[in-house]
Amino acid sequence: MDREKAVFQEDFNPTFLFTWKGIRTEDEKNYHCHEHLELCYVQSGRGRHRIDGVTYEIGEGDLIVINAGVYHQALAGGAGGPVVEFYVGLTDICLAGLEKNRFPLRDGCPVFHLEGELKLKISKLCVGLEAEQDMCRSGRYYMMKTYAMQMLLLLLREEEQPAVKQQPGQYSFESVNRKYLVERIMDYFEDHYEQKISLDQIACNMYLSPFYVSRIFKAETGDTPIHFLIDIRLSKARKLLLEKQELSIQEVAASVGYDDAYHFSKLFKKKYGVAPSAVRRREG
């Protein structure tokens, strides 16, 4: 009972509001918020959600939690094709230590990347909700409310899962949200390597500390974020040196995010064992 009180501020008896299933082929028109809590389960496709100023890549098996008062906008999948989304709306949710209609988000990330048994259970609950919506049988509201409550309770249990015991000198993180966070950082590096990027900037955008971001990134990849970014930049630079013979070393350096050609050359030689100019003589 004490454990229940630590999680539930009062009797867990939310009000079920709605379900909606749709195929998203265009961006939601308004960047908006509402007073209830909303769950969005991605049944297929890939898309994006803009939530509280951050754009998240989402795909099949992802569950997005949109808390009350949080601005959000669903975006179309673009080249990835249409996105099939299943929404559930609830209100009167009171969890200990949180404002009304708010759900705890591990590391501040609203996207839960579901896998294995949890993904299967959530998928079945969505199917059950959709079936009840269509059948219009007696007790439909209470059945749908029960399914929606199960979705929240399964997520709460997932949040309670402890990290695997650490080995000496190592960090071990099993949270799929942490894995998703690292994937986002890697994708950001790949798409913006030519820009000015700092660990402080990345951490600030994710509402996390630079130390925490660096720690979980190294735990997942074995490398620091900055070293990972340097490897991407140098790999891109090597390709440019070979494919764009007309570019100077300074221009190649600038193309991958370095204003200082000397600093770029030092990093390049440390990684490949030769200066940038020597790569062209050897392989050009």
What does this structure look like?
The radius of gyration is 23 Å and the shape is elongated. It has a 5-stranded antiparallel β-sheet. A hairpin with a 2-residue loop joins strand 3 and strand 4 (54-59). Helix content is 45%, strand content 18%. It is an alpha+beta fold and 284 residues long.
Quick tags:
alpha+beta; five-stranded antiparallel beta sheet; three-stranded antiparallel beta sheet; 10 helices; 8 strands; 45% helix
Which term fits the overall shape?
A: elongated
Query: Which whole number gives the mean pLDDT?
Result: 83
Report the total helices.
10
Number of strands: 8
- Strand share of the residues? 15-25%
Structural class: alpha+beta
Tell me the strand order in the biggest sheet.
1-7-2-5-8
Quaternary status of these chains? single chain
Largest sheet: 5 strands, antiparallel
* Helix-strand pattern: HEEEEEEEEHHHHHHHHH
Termini gap: 72 Å
Helix share, percent: 40-55%
List segments where confidence is low: pLDDT < 50 over at least 5 consecutive residues: 162-176
Radius of gyration, whole Å:
23 Å
Please give the structural blueprint.
Layout: H1 2-7, E1 15-24, E2 37-44, E3 46-51, E4 54-59, E5 62-66, E6 72-75, E7 83-91, E8 111-113, H2 116-135, H3 140-160, H4 176-192, H5 199-205, H6 210-221, H7 225-243, H8 249-255, H9 261-272, H10 276-283
Antiparallel strand pairs: 1-7, 2-5, 2-7, 3-4, 3-6, 5-8
Helix pairs in contact: 2-3, 4-6, 4-7, 5-6
